[in-house]
Amino acid sequence: MNLTTIVGLLAATGTTIAFVPQVLQIVKTQDTKGISLVMYIIFTIGILFWLTYGILLSDIPIIMANSITLILAITILFLKIKNG
């Protein structure tokens, strides 16, 4: 594994883990009032494009981070739509 991949994995881990507390808080409280629906729709679409980009490049850090982040973002988006 080269240095570029290691740095990519560290960056991907940090930015992906950053979403976990938000998801846990929303799942626990079901409170999504402070979250913008439009922002999460745009963000989720952006993550889907990042994932596609990673797949096209066969870039493991991009694929891993965006696969996990997409699941987290979809969870928040679903709960936002469900709970308003």
Characterization of the model:
This protein is mainly α. It has a domain at 34-84: Monooxygenase. Helices cover 83% and strands 0% of the residues. The chain contains four helices and no strands. Helix 1 (3-17) runs parallel beside helix 4 (60-83) and helix 3 packs antiparallel against helix 4 (60-83). The model has no long low-confidence stretch (mean pLDDT 92).
Provide the succession of SSEs. Answer: HHHH
Major beta sheet summary: none
Work out the helix count.
4
Rg over CA atoms, rounded to whole Å, is: 14 Å
The beta-strand count equals 0
What CATH calls the topology of the domain at 34-84 is Monooxygenase
Which SSEs are present, and which pair or pack?
Blueprint: H1 3-17, H2 20-29, H3 37-57, H4 60-83
Helix pairs in contact: 1-4, 2-4, 3-4
